[in-house]
Amino acid sequence: MKFRRQTFAAVLAAGAFCMAAAGAHAQSKVKVGFMLPYTGTYAALGNAIENGFRLYVQEQGGKLGGREVEYFKVDDESEPSKAVDNMNKLVKRDNVDVVVGTVHSGVVMAMAKVAKDTNTLLVVPNAGAGAVTGPMCAPNIFRSSFSNWQPGYAMGKVAGEKGAKKVVTITWKYAAGDESVEGFREGLKSAGGDVVKELTLPFPNVEFQALLTEIAATKPDAVYAFFAGGGAVKFVKDYAAAGLNKTIPLYGPGFLTDGTLEAQGAAAQGMLTTLHYADGLDVPKDKAFRADYTKTYKSAPDVYAVQGYDAAQMLGAGLLAVKGDVSKRNDLIAAMEKAHIDSPRGAFTLSKAHNPVQDIYLRKVVGNENHVEGVAVKALADPARGCKM
Amino acid sequence: MDLAVFLVQCLNAVQYGLLLFLVASGLTLIFGILGVINLAHGSFYMIGAYLAYALAPWAAAHLGGGFFTALLIGLVLSVAFGYVLEWAFVSYLYHRDHLQQVLMTYGLILVFEELRSILAGDDVHGVPPPSWLAGSIPLGHVMTYPVYRLFMSGVCVVVALGLYAIIARTRLGMAIRAGASNREMVQALGVDIRFLYRIVFAAGVALAVLAGMIAAPVSSVYPGMGNQVLIVSFVVVVIGGIGSIRGALVASLLVGFVDTFGNVLIPQVAGVLVYVLMAAVLLWRPEGLFRAG
Amino acid sequence: MPGDVLLRALDVTRRFGGLVAVDRVSITLVRNEVHAVIGTNGAGKSTLVNMLAGELAPTQGRVQLNGRDVTRWPQPRRARAGLGRTYQRTTIFPRASVFENCRLAAQAKSQYPFDWWTRAAHCHESSHRAERAIEQAGLAGQTQRLAGTLSHGQKRQLEIAMCLATGPHVLLLDEPLAGMGPEETERMLLLLSTLKPAHAILLVEHDMDAVFRIADHITVMVNGGVIASGDPDAIRVNADVQAAYLGESEAVGTA
Amino acid sequence: MKHRHRTDSAVAPLGLALVALAVFPFLGGQFYVDLVQTTMILSIFALSLELLVGTTGLVSFGHAAFFGIAAYATALLSPQADAPSLAWLLPAVLAATALAAAVIGAFSLRTRGVYFIMVTLAFAQMAYYVFHDTKLAGGSDGIYLYVKPVLAIGNFTLLDLASAHTFYYATLCALVAVYMLLALVKRSRFGHALAGIRANEQRMRAAGYSTYPYKLAAFVLAGTLAGVAGFLQAVKDGFVNPEMLAWHQSGAVLLMVILGGIGSLRGAVVGAFLFVLLKELFQSEALFGGFARHWQLPLGLTIIACVALMPNGVVAMPARLRRMRTPVPHAG
Known about the structure:
Shape of chain D: globular
Number of helices of chain A: 12
Oligomer: heterotetramer
Radius of gyration of chain D: 21 Å
Largest sheet of chain A: 8 strands, mixed
Largest interface: A-D, 50 and 53 residues
CATH class of the largest domain in chain A: Alpha Beta
Strand content of chain A: 15-25%
Largest sheet of chain D: 2 strands, antiparallel
Structural class of chain D: mainly alpha
CATH superfamily of the largest domain in chain A: Response regulator
Number of domains of chain A: 2
Number of strands of chain A: 14
Shape of chain A: globular
Helix content of chain D: over 70%
Number of strands of chain D: 4
Structural class of chain A: alpha/beta
Strand order of the largest sheet of chain D: 1-4
Radius of gyration of chain A: 22 Å
C-alpha cells in the first residue's frame, strides 16, 4: 500500500511538470513579453511601463507593423538571481519575439546576457545601467529610456553654470548611484565646478540624518542626490526638515521627484532636477499622449509610462519596415536604429549603442508638477564607453 | 569633526537608536517570553505606517482629530489585531520548534505584503506630521533640527520608561519576567499563561505598529519598508540578549552609534559594520549583552 | 588492585561572580570504592561533578586522572581517557533504539569521522561494546526498543549503560536513584555493586539509606565546602554533619 | 525486517523520480528543461543545508553565502575568452568555498541556538556587502561569466557544459552524487555522531566526542556542497549578482528544507521542487488571470497551511495519512 501511494505521488509530481510544459503555439501574432516588476518596491513602475506600451499599441488599432500583438507577462520581482530563469520563461517557453524590461539594473544585466546569448530582441524601458549600452551593447538590445549618466551629466552642467564650485554628492552605494554621480561630476567639471565629497550609505538604508549633518558641516555650494522610490521621498523630506534646502540647493536626476511629489509635499517645492521628460512640455505629442493615457487608465502618466510608450514606438517602427515579418531581423534592427521616435518627451533618435539621443530638461518642482524650466542639454548622447559596435 | 558636529551626530545616533528600540522591544518581548521567532514583525511596522497614512485623513475628516486621534485608533486596532493573530496563528507555534515558526511567520510576511499591495497600492505616500510639530529648531549656522524628530525620541523614551515600569513594578511584569524563565512559576502567580501570552503578543504588535505610525511622517510609506527594519531589529535583539528590554535599549543605542558614525567616518565598510558589531558581541558573549531572566 | 587512585581533585574552587559555589574541595576516587558526596541543595555537588568531568573549568585547584594532570583537558578528552558520567536529568537519545544509544556512545572509542563508506551499524567494535554494556546494565531484553518508550527506571539504567559503553574506569553518577521506586532502587544498587570492583565510583545522591548502604567513603558538603569526610560510620556520628542536616530540616520546618 | 521494508519503499519513488528527471529533456520544452535544471541546482543547495539543519541540528540562516561565494569564485576564476577546464575550476571553486565555510563556521559555532542563526546571518550579510559595495566583482550590478567550462583530455572533449543537454545531465549527475554522498555520510559513523549531536550534544561530549570539530566538519561539508550548487548556478546563468547571497535567499532555501520535511534527504529535494512548482502555479496567468500578479498571497497562505497541517513536512504526509486511516487500537 505504502509503496503504491508514494509512487503515485511521484508520478503526479512529474506529470504536473510535464503538463505545465505544454504551451500554446499560435504564430499569427507578434509576441511581446513584459518582464517587469509587478510585486515589491518597483511594482508601480512596472505597471506604468506596461500601460504606456499597451496604449501605443491600442492607438495603432491593437497592431504593430500590421500584426496583432499578444502579450506575455513575467514578474521579475526585482530579483537578479532569478532573472535568467524569468527571462527564459519568455524566451524559451513563450517564444516571444521581443522582450520589454525592466526597471532594476541588476536584473537588466542578466536580461542583456540572455538576450545576447539567445539573440532575442530586447527593449529596455527604464533601467539605466551603463553597461547595457556600453560593454554589453549588442545589435538586438535597445533602450527607450536613458542611461544613468545622462541626467547626471546634464545636472552637473546646470549646477556648474549656476555657479556651484564645490558640490557634495550623496547616493546609495550601488552601481546606478555611482554611474549617476560619475555623469554629474563630468558635467560639473565641464562647467568649472568639482565634487568635493562623495557621501554614500549602504543600499537600501534610509537613515540619512548623519550624512545631512555631514553636509551641513561641509557647507558646499550645492548637493547632488541620487535616490529612488521611498528613499528619494525620505531624503528630500529629511533634507528640507534639516533646513538645508534654505541655504544649499539640492539637485538630482528627475527620479528624485518623479511620481513622488504627492508624498514629498512642501519639502520638494522649488527643487531643480534634470530628466528627459517634464510636466508642461510644449510638445503636441505630449498633450495628446497625456489626454489618451488619462482617459484610458484614469490616472496621470509619468516618465515610466512615456518610456513604455516609446518602447512600443521603437518596436513599431522596426516592425513597420519589415511589414511585421520578425524573421527579417537585420532589416528590423536597421529600421529601429534609424527611427525618429515622435516621443511625448520630444522627438529623439538612437545612438550607435541604441540609447536615446535626447534633450534633457531642467525641471522645477511647482505644486505637484515637475515643471519644465528649459532644456539643460540638447540632444545629449551617452558616451557608451566600452561599446564595440 | 569639530565638537558641535560631533554632538549633533551623537544626537542623531541616539535618535535613530531610540526608534530602533521601539521596534525591537516588541520583537524581544515576543521572542523572549513566547519563544517565537517572529519574522512578520517588520510587517507590523509596515502596517503601522500604512495605518497612519490611512487613518490620519480619515480621523481628521470624521472625528475632527488629527494625528493623535489616528495614533490612538491605530493602537487600539493593533492590540485587537495582535490578539486575534495570536489566537488564529501564533498560538499553534508555542510547542513547535523554531523552524516552523520561521516558516509560518514568513508566510505571514508574504500575505501582509500582498494585502498591502491590493488594499493600498504600490505607490510611495507621504504622511504629514501634525502642524504644531512641523517646525524645527536651529542647530548651528546651517542646520536645523526638526521638532518632530525630537517628539519621536520623546515617545520612544516614554515607551521605554513605561515598559520598564510595567516589567519592574507590576504584577503583570512579574509574570512576564517569570514567563521568560519559568512557566510553572507564572501559573503559581495565578496568571493564566495563555492570557499572558496573548497580551504580550498583542503588546509586541502594538509596539511595532506604534513605531511604524510615528515613523511614518519621517519615513513616508512604501512597499517593502518592513523588511528593512526586520533584519536590523533582529540584530538589536540578539546583541541585547533575547528577551531583555534593557538589552534591547542598550543594543539599539549601540547600533545607532555604529551606524551613524560608520556612515560618516568609514563609509567604505558602513554596510557591514552593524553585522561586524553583532558577530563581535556574540563571539565575546555568546548569549548577548544582557541575558533575560 | 584496590587502592589504585584513579581520580583526584586538589583544592578545586569555583566562583560565579561573587558567589563561591565550590570552595577548596579535595577528593580522591579509588578503584573498588564507592565514594558518595552528600549535601543540602545548592551545596555545590553538581558543580563539583561538572568540574571533575571537565564541563566546567575550576577557578582554582587541580584535577588528576590516572595520575595525570587533566585540569586543562576539555570534557571529551577526559571521557576518552576513561572518565564516564551520568546526569541528573536523563540524557538519552529518545528516538533511537536502546542499542543505538549505547552503540553511539561506544563509537566514541573508535570514531573514524572520515570513514564515510562504512555503515555505522557495521562498526563491530562499537556494537560489541554496546551489547556488553546493555547486558551489564540489565537491559538485555530491551535492545530494540525506542529509548523514549522505556520506563523511568529503565531510562536511568540506559543512562548508565551508555556511560559504560565508553569503557570508563571512573564513574561520576549524579543522582542515579532520583525518582526511582523501591524495586528500581534495589536493582540500581545491585548494579553499582557489580560495577564496583572494576571502577572508581563517585555517587552524588539524596537517598541517605542507599548512600549509607553502599558507600565506602562519604564526603559531606555544605555551602560549597567540605565539612566532613570519612567512612559511613564516622559520618553518621559526626556532630557537624548532624548539625548541618538538623539545621536544614529546621529551616524547612519554618519556611 | 522493518528496516528492509523501509528501504524498499524509499528506493522505488527515488528510482522513479530519477527516471523522470532523466527522460524529462525528451518530453518538456526547453524552458521547462531549464526550470527543472534550476530546480535540481536548488535541490543540491537544499540538500547541503539539510545536512546542517536536519542531520546536525544547526540552523544556518546564512547558507546563501556559500552558494554566492562559489558563484563569484567561478566567475572570477574563469578566463574572459577561452573555456576554463572543469578539472581545475571546480576543485578551485570548492576549495575557496570550503575555506570560507571553515572560517565562518569556526567563529559561528562558538554560539548556539537562536544566536547561531543570527551569527550565520551576520556573516552572510558581511559577504553580501563585500560583493555589493566593492568593485571587486562588478558591485551591485553583478559580474558575467562569458564561457562555460569544459572537461577535456588532450583534444578530446569529455564534457562541454556549453551544450544544454550535456549540462542538464551533468547537473542531474551532480544531484545524484551529492544525494548519495549525503546518504553515505548519514549512515556512517560520522553521520550518526552528527545525529547524536543534534539529539543531545551534552551526552555526546560526555561520551568522548569533541563535538566542535564534528560540527565544523559538517559546516564545511555543507558549505562546500552549497558551493557545488553555486558553481552550477553561475555556469548555467552566466551571471552572478550579490542578491545570490542575500538573506532572503538563505531564507528561501531554509523554507525548502522545512517544507519538504526536516531530517530526510528526500525532503530537501521534494521541498525544492514543491517550492518552485507552487511559485510557477500561482504565477500562472492561465490559471489565475490578473490575480496572478498577487501570487505571493496564495503562496503565503499555502505555507501557513503547510505549517498548520504538515508539521513534519511533505515527505511525512503519507505516513500521517496512513495513521489517520487506520483506527488506533484501544488498549484493553
